[in-house]
Amino acid sequence: MREFLRVAWLVVRKDLRVESRSRELLFTTVFFAISCVLVFSFGFVRAGRAVEGAAAGILWIAIAFSGTLALGRAFERERYHDALRGLLLAPVARPAIYVGKLAGLLLLLAVVEAIVTVMVAFLFEAPLFRHPVRLFALLSLGTLGFASVGTLFSAMLVRARSRAVLLPVLLYPVTIPVLIMGVSGTAVLIDPEPNLAMARLWIGLLFFFDAVFLTLALWTFEPVMTE
């Protein structure tokens, strides 16, 4: 277990070190998420008032779109100079590589979500921080479910020429339940009379989804990468 975590940390550290030099993926993802929120604000804010119930959906749409952009580049750097081949030939557990890639993406999306959540709360006058612990649980579990599936699909398509097109085609049908649960849970939290029991239900369903798909991803990552 210690060796597994060490390998995962080395992958995370490598990605963070490369990203700290260029900040290409961070700036691109943050800019895209901010652009999504701003575009929706022009359509759903009228006479200074936001359309009722729009904030939850826009928050998760921005997260999903920016997350897809980040997932599309998850294994991009490893494609050059046979870096991916060298990574797979290393005498380490391949699921640890998956965990390291997933952790790096989660850190990136955490930065994006912090910015996007503040923007949505301000532009749409949504009380997103009225129940911060439950909102954090929804965002964390929803992002984990979305990214766990997306990281696996990104690894599957790393050698495909049309990976930029195929990734959303494969990703969204599988992760639609995550987005629905995230939107529904956020919506009941920002209602004038929040339904905390329903919020707990959506959080529990997200936890179950994450457990199932994270287990499947860890189980299938090695055969996916070897084939």
Poorly predicted regions are none
Mean pLDDT value? 85
* Mass-distribution shape: globular
Give the proportion of residues in helices. over 70%
> Strand arrangement, largest sheet?
1-2
Cα-atom Rg, whole angstroms? 18 Å
Output the keywords.
227 residues; mainly alpha; two-stranded antiparallel sheet; 8 helices; 2 strands; 80% helix; 2% strand; globular
Task: Give a summary of the structure in a few sentences.
The chain is mainly α and 227 residues long. It is 80% helix and 2% strand.
Please specify the SSE layout and strand pairing:
Elements: H1 2-22, H2 24-44, E1 45-46, E2 49-50, H3 54-72, H4 83-89, H5 94-123, H6 132-156, H7 163-190, H8 196-226
Antiparallel strand pairs: 1-2
Helix pairs in contact: 1-5, 2-3, 2-5, 3-5, 3-6, 3-7, 5-6, 5-8, 6-7, 6-8, 7-8
Q: What does this molecule look like?
A:
The protein is mainly alpha-helical and 227 residues long. The chain has one domain. Helices cover 80% and strands 2% of the residues. The chain contains 8 helices and 2 strands. It has a two-stranded antiparallel ribbon. Helix 3 packs antiparallel against helix 5, helix 3 runs parallel beside helix 6 and helix 6 packs antiparallel against helix 7. The radius of gyration is 18 Å and the shape is globular. The mean pLDDT is 85.
